[in-house]
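ASSEMBLY PREDICTION REQUEST
Request ID: AP-0331
Submitted by: J.K., bench scientist
Number of chains: two
Total residues: 576
Priority: normal
Notes: Please return the full assembly, not individual chains.
Input sequences:
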Amino acid sequence: MFVLGAHRANDETGDAMSILIDDIHKTYGAQGALAGVTLSIREGERFGLIGPDGAGKSSLMRILCGLIRADRGSFTLCGLDGNRDLRAIKSSIGYMPQRFSLYPDLTVAENLRFFADLFTVPRRERDERLERLYRFSRLKPFAARRAAALSGGMKQKLALSCALIHTPRVLILDEPTTGVDPVSRREFWDILSELSRDGTTILVSTPYMDEAARCDRIAFIHHGRLLAVDTPAGIPGRFPLTILEFRGRRFPVRHDDMLRVRGVASVRLLGDRLRVACESREAVERAVRDMLERSGAEILSVRTDTPSIEDTFVHLMHEEPGHV
Amino acid sequence: MSESAFAVETKDLTQRFGRFTAVDRVTMTVAKGEIYGFLGANGAGKTTTIRILCGLLRPTSGSAFVNGHDVIRYPERVKAGIGYMSQKFSLYEDLRVRDNLVFFGGIYGLGRERIEQRIAEITSATGLTELLTRKVRGLPTGWKQRLALACAVLHDPGIIFLDEPTGGVDPVSRRTFWDFIYSLADAGKTIFVTTHYMDEAEYCHRIAIMYQGRILMCDSPSAIRESTGDALLEDAFIRLITRESDTETGGD
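STATUS: Completed
Returned structure:
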């Protein structure tokens, strides 16, 4: 157990809002990055931003960090006004950008000290804070190792430690686990859960649905717009169709004929499973089964499955006007 | 060259680096047309195994046949019959899509006519046709990934190695990418994927879970999930390797 921030000082604040975003717009040249984003994130919440490349995830994060300015709209962070109190906001935020931002030639300890200086952490607090960060990251045995020589998972933990050096109330992480193996990834997320339990608000972006499932709430973002905001358990409720899952062998890879069956919306092959999104099982099962068997597939079982976060995401993306 | 039903066949494949055993008696068979995934943490031995199977590294002991060629005796024949694409794909950003394809065709020693023919085939299968004259720089990641794959299969290899091919892309692009992979498998190509991501592993016909140089389990994603009683592949994976490290006591 570790307590880094202990921000949850008074429990009666229950639903205190940590980040309030109101109608934020941003364009780069002719390209729209954010087209009116409104969102509120609670204190201590793990909030996931899910979306494709170029959807606006990084832009939104950079605006909240005060690195770029919104064209229109406003936000408050820990009660501070994003248009006026930028300096104070910056000291309340820990930001971990997408690209590894540490000094590869410096050791683990030197990187941490450098960031402590940068954020003017008082000397007398510094040692204790470093100890705490070492404890949770388990990087102490590697303190003298150059950052360049760390494994992917350790680099991420060091970057996270550097972002936490000034005990920020809000942590903003832009695709923090890209390229990190599953064991380190799980460890990283366990650390995030601990932080959020201590009251740190976490805004994290990821293209991975299994990570999305570990957030308290997620928002799908596409073309600079939020398509849905909900809990991971609530998201599949926005999928209006039924998923019919066939298990078997030798499923065809082309599904044009199945897509012509009335009631079939989409077909997806996943290893030994063929997932058909349809209006109802009764309407399509027979026809799809016949087609599969005629094409030489062997069906072992059929069942209806709960739609996944990914099913819902893909559906909402296709539903969006202007989708190609 | 022997005509084998298997695209990849290894027996007790072992690779030691000094006192460290990176690959520990790996025995496996991968059928033609199969999509086979390697799932493991860093240092599990995935990359070393792939390097041996690509004819880039001579194993310490054991045997491996790729497309029927012995990787120890005929590494050059092995290399000629495979395609490789990694997450850190090496495209020429300042060149157009078309130039990249022509360039890779040249590297593989394809003739002018053959290159044109293959470009036409592959770009229509990947949906890249309309982008042929576009510069690579500025293309969305999903399109770059498709182009990198197109470059890797231009010489029509029997086996394609993919190292975390769709890292960092959204599910829609990932689906499009895998549609193309499935069509390659359907045409008899064998696909060998290494990945950290369960979103990607779920697309494989079979997955081998690697830990400390050994294959702990090899089965379909659904069968692996059922064997541990987990709803999510990642939970099953973590459970399997934790169980293994507990029995050894220690770990790191």
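REVIEWER COMMENTS: Chain B has a mean pLDDT of 89.
SIGN-OFF: pending second reviewer
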